[in-house]
Amino acid sequence: MSAFSHLPLGQRIPAGTPHAVSASLPTMRAVIGYEEKNPEITRHMTSGYPRFVKHPFLKKTAAHILHTLGLEGWQLWPTSSAHAAATLCAWLGVPEARVVENVCVSGVAFPANPDTFARAKTYLQHTGTLLSSREAEDYLVRVGELPAPHPEPTFEGYAASRVKGAVARAFQHASPEDVFLANSGMNAVYAAFRAADSLQRPRGRKLWIQLGWLYLDTIAILQKFTGQPAHDYVVQHNVFDLAALRKLFATRGHEIAGLITEVPTNPLIQTPDLAAIYELCRAHQAIFVADPTIASPLNIDILPHTDVAVNSLTKYTASEGDVLAGAIVVNPRSPWAADFRRLLPGELQPVYSRDLSRLASQIGDVDALIAQVNRTAPAVVEFLLNHPRVKNVWWSEHPDSRDNYLKIARSPASIGSMISFTVENLAEFYDRLSLPKGPSFGMKTSLICPFIYLAHYDLVTSEHGRAQLAAAGLDPELLRLSIGSEPADDIIAALAEALA
């Protein structure tokens, strides 16, 4: 018998907090219904990953502001700051849209229009500039719509100093002054891109390189916010092909603004040769941005091999799974270090005070979590590799990546929590599996999801899209498993039961 129990559709993960960053999608029918916005499924999804599912507190905040301002029949997206609202309003380009503010909460209001609403949602998702659920909760308390905030442990000291110090120690080569906090990992990526682009564009450098298949919103930033994407955006899916990368730099090096990658990539857990890529970037005066979130900077040492690192603190650092936050860490030895220190404060969105206090209260748990997942992951990988119904397994020490990964691993035991794999008959396995099933990773709770269905459903459901996935080496039925703090035997027993 599995030690886990099937979670009902829509249950928050973790349960017991309104600020959970994941929610249960227990069957493939639920996954597909969620993606296709089937009311039979979505009515159960009262919350989800905050950049994708509008939190009930945000809905209530928006409704209250519109009613207070007499804007009946309008819609509103609450934003993380007045500056974010102004930027969103300008980007929408809708004459009737306006920046509004009520009791210290800003947003963009517009006459009800599904297209404008969807475009605003997409922009906020990509840039990470949506209002925090805790800030919305506090607004509702101030205006009398809620009696009190949800009780939870918080840090009583100077939370920013505690978090910055912990992040600097994780990256090892940085001081707290090199750490810039953002209200989400995605906002950290966006702010780093904006700062780098603003440095390079006056020099006539507009071309950005995406190395590997990256997280969907990182891809979207490069697709939508480069000057002329058809000319200024190049994708190299094969992270191991240094010859192709050198050829690209040899032919277009004078145009290249920067290169962005993940270490390892999401979801194929592939690690490029960081030192060789950074040497190439330095030789051609291109800016190198790398994201170590999948493995955690506690497992890999990347800062000496990049100009800036971007990191989602929602993963591992906020191991309870109830805070959205991110960080940008500047390599103090980068030739661009002073420029980034100057520009980043004006580009990123700060973490809301209660989110920061909540993050500071749990940040001390991250070392123990990383140590635990490093002990558990090899046993789970071995089980999957040897099971006849498992077709492919990707992890940090996959033969294609092993040498590159070990060059930057903190120790031979720094395996990381992430494993991707494919099985015979995805739907049968997924529906039978009792592990928690939902988006996100890096929690004390193990989480599994059919990642391609959740992140790229548009590609899964079209012939052209499936061809794109195949060209990038991605199986639409890939599962992404994040190991939590549970015993290895319990995780393996749950997998074995579903594979039986």
UniProtKB/TrEMBL annotation:
<dbReference type="InterPro" id="IPR015421">
    <property type="entry name" value="PyrdxlP-dep_Trfase_major"/>
</dbReference>
<dbReference type="GO" id="GO:0019346">
    <property type="term" value="P:transsulfuration"/>
</dbReference>
<dbReference type="GO" id="GO:0030170">
    <property type="term" value="F:pyridoxal phosphate binding"/>
</dbReference>
<dbReference type="InterPro" id="IPR015422">
    <property type="entry name" value="PyrdxlP-dep_Trfase_small"/>
</dbReference>
<dbReference type="InterPro" id="IPR000277">
    <property type="entry name" value="Cys/Met-Metab_PyrdxlP-dep_enz"/>
</dbReference>
<protein>
    <submittedName>
        <fullName>Cystathionine beta-lyase/cystathionine gamma-synthase</fullName>
    </submittedName>
</protein>
<keyword id="KW-0456">Lyase</keyword>
<comment type="similarity">
    <text>Belongs to the trans-sulfuration enzymes family.</text>
</comment>
<keyword id="KW-0663">Pyridoxal phosphate</keyword>
<dbReference type="InterPro" id="IPR051750">
    <property type="entry name" value="Trans-sulfuration_enzymes"/>
</dbReference>
<dbReference type="InterPro" id="IPR015424">
    <property type="entry name" value="PyrdxlP-dep_Trfase"/>
</dbReference>
<dbReference type="GO" id="GO:0016829">
    <property type="term" value="F:lyase activity"/>
</dbReference>
<dbReference type="Pfam" id="PF01053">
    <property type="entry name" value="Cys_Met_Meta_PP"/>
</dbReference>
<dbReference type="GO" id="GO:0003962">
    <property type="term" value="F:cystathionine gamma-synthase activity"/>
</dbReference>
